Amino acid sequence: MSNFWSAVVRGLTPYVPGEQPKVANLVKLNTNENPYGPSPKVIEALQTELKDTLRLYPDPNGERLKKAVGEYYSVQPDQVFVGNGSDEVLAHTFLGLLKHELPLFFPDITYSFYPVYCGLYGIIYKTVPVSESFEIKIEDYHQPNGGIIFPNPNAPTGRVLPLAAIASLLERNRDSVVVVDEAYVDFGGESAIALVDRYPQLLVIQTLSKSRSLAGLRVGFAVGHPELIEALERVKNSFNSYPLGRLAICGAVAAIEDRAYFDQTCRMIIRTREDLARNLRNFGFEVLPSAANFVFVRHPERDAAELAMALREKSIIVRHFKQDRIDQYLRITVGTDDQCAVLCKALEQILGIKR
User: Fold this and answer.
1) Which domains can be identified in the chain, with CATH numbers?
2) What span, in angstroms and rounded, lies between the C-alpha atoms of 287 and 284?
């Protein structure tokens, strides 16, 4: 049947998502899902929305959600774009704002969906090496480009750039769009949304999948100058004019409005992350500084793939990347305290650590 494929499809190398195994009693630490459920107010809102109106199309513009995001970040609704998870928002961004004659720049170690979008949309790109310690070096982006995109904190490393560094980049890069992908920013970073009114070339993208525990609802958004948002709306309305369903909109609004629950769960994850990092260092691991809900680690004496397999045999799944420069690292999602305790006990056994 591949004879019927288009030339575009033949040339694609699709993104490979983290494994979602259907195994009982699994400690799943491989896809950076929040270990805590969504706000009880989200559940209540979803139950209220389950009524006869589901037969009707949702608001194609998601105005309630745009208003909620705008109020949370002190921006106007026309500065907000919403979509099915940040991946869809990113897809529209690549097509609407990052496809130009000059190459798009992004780090060589980063979210592996970026080159997939480039392949899908025929975007030329250039990867910019991170440092030996996996830090994004802003000065390396000070050259002509068709756009810049990077996660902050970066994925899969967890390393974060301060807001001053992003502002410095924006000062030097006025002629193309700079996209900051903030999927993990709530676990230790500072959002660049604070800069959007000063820099019309800045677009900030976030997701409700991580810090607000809504990975299963698929909601993301972008904040930027109204002209950038209009470009995304034009792409969206040429592709899918009803991106978010009624349940997604009402659940997302409830999650954003419940600030107390959001703050509480983020604090819990940050505390657990620091405890986990300390324990892993005690086991001999090198642990990169992380501002995300995961840690990126390597053991100088043990092969990463073998460690991942040994953990799997104990019903614990972590993420191992085979990419150059990071093939000896494991990305471990921060779970609950109990899940991290199970992980640490398993690693003690695998590494032969006696207490």
Assistant:
1) 2-37+260-351 (3.90.1150.10), 40-258 (3.40.640.10)
2) 9
Mean pLDDT of 268-289: 98
The Cα–Cα gap between 136 and 158 comes to 11
Strand partners, 333: 294
Q: CB-based contacts of 246: which residues, under 8 Å, 6+ apart? A: 49, 53, 54, 56, 58
Percent of the chain with pLDDT over 90: 92
Can you read off the two tokens belonging to residue 66? 């745009």
pLDDT band at 355 (very low <50, low <70, confident <90, very high): low
Report the C-alpha gap between 164 and 296 in whole angstroms: 24
Cα distance between residue 25 and residue 219, in whole Å:
28
Q: What residues contact 168, with CB distance under 8 A and at least 6 apart?
A: 138
Q: How far is CA 268 from CA 153, 265, 272, 331, in A?
A: 18, 5, 6, 19
Distance, in Å, from the CA atom of 6 to the CA atom of 100, rounded to the nearest integer, reads 23
CA gap 18, 15 in Å, rounded = 10
The answer, yes or no, to whether residue 24 has pLDDT greater than 80, is: no
Burial 89-128 (b: 16+ CB within 10 A, else e): bbbbbbbbbbbeeebbbbbebbbebbbbbbbbeebebeeb
How far apart, in whole angstroms, are the C-alpha atoms of residue 238 and residue 77?
Answer: 21
Tell me: pLDDT of 2 over 80: no
Judging by DSSP bridges, how do beta strands 202-207 and 220-224 pair with one another? antiparallel
